Amino acid sequence: MFKDRLFPQNKVALGLSQDLYKSITELPIISPHGHCEPSWFSENKRFPDPAQLFVVPDHYIFRMLVSQGVSLRELGINPIDDSDFEKDPRRIWKKFCENYYLFRGTPTAMWLDYSFEKVFEIFEPLTPENSEFYFDQIEEKLTLPNFLPRALFDSFKIEALATTDAALSDLKHHTNIKNSSWNGKVIPTYRPDSVVDPEFSGFRKNLIRLGELTGEDTSSWEGYLTAHRLRRKFFKEVGATATDHGHPSARTENLSLAEAETLFKIILKGKFTREEADKFRGQMLTEMAKMSCEDGLVMQIHPGARRNHSNEIFNLFGLVKGFDIPGATDYVSALKPLLDVVGLSTEVTIIIFTLDETSYSRELAPMAGVYPALKLGPPWWFFDSFEGIKRFRESTTETCGFYNTVGFNDDTRAFCSIPARHDVSRRADCAYLAELVSTGRLRENEAHEVAYDLAYGLAKSTYKL
Predict the structure, then answer these.
(1) 384/108 Cα distance (integer angstroms)
(2) CB 301 within 8 A of CB 353
(3) What is d(CA 202, CA 229) in angstroms, rounded to the nearest whole number?
(4) From CA 78, how far away is CA 86, in angstroms rounded?
(5) Whole domain around residue 266: which residue ranges?
(6) Domain shared by 236 and 102, yes or no
(7) Ranges of the chain with pLDDT below 70
(8) What is the CATH number of the domain that holds 267?
(9) Is residue 152 part of a domain?
(10) H-helix segments, 319-457
């Protein structure tokens, strides 16, 4: 791969970029938010095959192929109603290789090429003609001890990795990791969507289960909130340092006790309007923020994804199949009720992400630039690319600086892409800092300190890792 990829090519800025990158490239990886499976590290079994490692779990890959007419079935995605569905890894891999040209110029291609070269030591470009060679080479390495999940984790220099776990999870895999002789740090994150979103499938059954797990009466408002406190405590005991909330909007509410109780009763009856469901989700974001003031868990809000845009795909294949689409999001009005309650507190950290880039300079950077509780999450999902990171820095730095942001997270289900994604982030930030230095907006010694913080320090301190 081109050694100076993503760096500016004028001599002064290029030299600065190289020096900055050299100073941080060997830093450990802090991965504070993602979707890797804890079972990988608990069981430490080999990854099944190249297709299961690279293609099947990664919606960045299969959504592009689907856009060109490849079916999800051809890519090994199991239909909900087909328990006898069998994956043919070589056929999946062949289809992937035949269409690899579709990723030209995308960050996905950069991540994949990095993984093939740096992890599996395959240096020739992937083509349909060498697909069998690639498959066999990767398959052979996956049989080796140093390609087991824990060994790869260590070789990637991951210092800490946080998974995302449902509120009702027993966290058995995290407990097994914690009790093992391996010293890798893999921790859970409290994701309560299934028990705070009235429109979530099985919501009322989930509330009953929440009550069973905690011994609380989740049919009462007080018991319901107490149950959340107890689950958060359990997650924290197993190592969690953060919560995560994937809501359709950034709406928050600050209802009185009587209003909240009344709304909760409506929700429990199941005969609520869409407005009432959204209002309840908004109230629960505020309640979760207040709980974070009590227990210290960092709060992450990931709003703005219009989930499961294709009804047909959702009905056939279920969640997370590449059809979640960004939507415009109002933050100034939506977050005000929550910020009226905790915005000036130094006892809580609330990290806001967005899929609506237009809001960075207009709303999010100005708010993070004044409210102590609010921090900006890095470019997320569709925008964790060189261009996305560059736009993020250009849109936010002048208003909220670097230290109201929280470093980088990879937000991935594709394990081997973690070092690749962090490398892109580090290169993009070094390129941006070099431009600031070369145009007299930042001193060189300051750029080195900022580069360290963006690559490592901010994520480690913000997420208490």
Answers:
(1) 10
(2) yes
(3) 21
(4) 8
(5) 11-46+159-462
(6) no
(7) 1, 83-85
(8) 3.20.20.140
(9) no
(10) 332-342, 359, 365-368, 386-400, 418-438, 444-452
Q: Which residue has the tokens 């599996």?
A: 120
**Do both 277 and 382 map to the same domain?**
yes
Q: Is 370 exposed, middle or buried (0-12, 13-18, 19+ CB in 10 A)?
A: middle
Element (H, E) at 31: strand 29-31
Contact indicator for 412, 158 with CB cutoff of 8 Å: no
- 3-state secondary structure (DSSP) of residue 354: coil
- 104: CATH: 1.10.2020.10
- Rounded-to-10 torsion of CA 287, 291, 292, 295: -170
| pLDDT, tens only, 385-441 | 999 999 999 999 999 999 999 999 999 999 999 999 999 999 999 999 999 999 999
CA distance 232 to 238: 10
Q: Cβ(208)–Cβ(192) under 8 Å? A: no
Residues 70-116 pLDDT 10s: 999 999 888 888 766 678 999 999 999 999 999 999 999 999 999 99
Rounded Cα distance between 109 and 263, Å, is: 48
Read off the tokens for 390: 């560059």
pTM exceeds 0.85: yes
